[in-house]
Amino acid sequence: MPKAFVNGSNLYYEVTGKGYPLVLAHEFCSDLEFWDHQVRFLQRRYQVITYNARGWPPSDVPESPSDYSWEHGVEDMYQLLRHLNIKEAYIGGLSLGGYVSLMFGMEHSEMAKGLILAATGAGAFFDKEVRKEWERMQEIRAHEIETEGMRKLKDKIAQEASRIQLRHKDPKGWERYYEALGLHSDVGSANTARRFIIPRPPVYELEPKLKKIDLPAIILTGDEDAPCLEPSIFMKRNIANSGLVVFPKSGHTINVEEPELFSWLLLDFMTSVDVEKW
Question: Mind listing the domains of the chain with CATH numbers?
């Protein structure tokens, strides 16, 4: 079980295939296992690196809330790539992992050949009162995780409006997603919700930094993923060398809802950048 001690925590990671490196960071409600289709598809041409973020066993689960933030997420990815002696890679992720990838592209652009930003931008609202209400609900969720646990909350989370599409499309895949959700660390999930998800700068506040991104980027979102659809369009308008893909009748978990299409789009993006045709 390979682990790298980076930024004060041990991260469990997997490296599959040979070729140019691609790192994929997972979302809040999953782990590296839910990149399985992309790993098996893309390993034929790329070296695919997946890992469990801090707070997701078998990676370490720090007890202190101060050990969680979006800055920790970026630094963890950076140090993991350094640990693997990777100087440049395609940087990608979904949701929480997409936000880490976006900020990595700003903080360490010299190490990113291109950005893959899937289901990224939840929590971005122009209306400050709406944002405050969202933060309040996220704090309630963090408290529920602490007091009730992910095993009890998995029913509520897995059937949210932006996640139920997976159940409609792939009941067996949804069942796997549902059962895995209940095994997440309560400590890691609550700390991530409270110290990463709530305080992170909303995408709409990043406009000046988005305009400075000089990297090829592909932005992917589901048309029924309400928290991410408008932020994705906003990123498309402000990242100069970006392309936007909207998946029809799709929610938040687009990499498992539409695994073949998602994988082909990543391959097309990376091969286009490889031959300078993006």
Answer: 3-124+202-274 (3.40.50.1820)
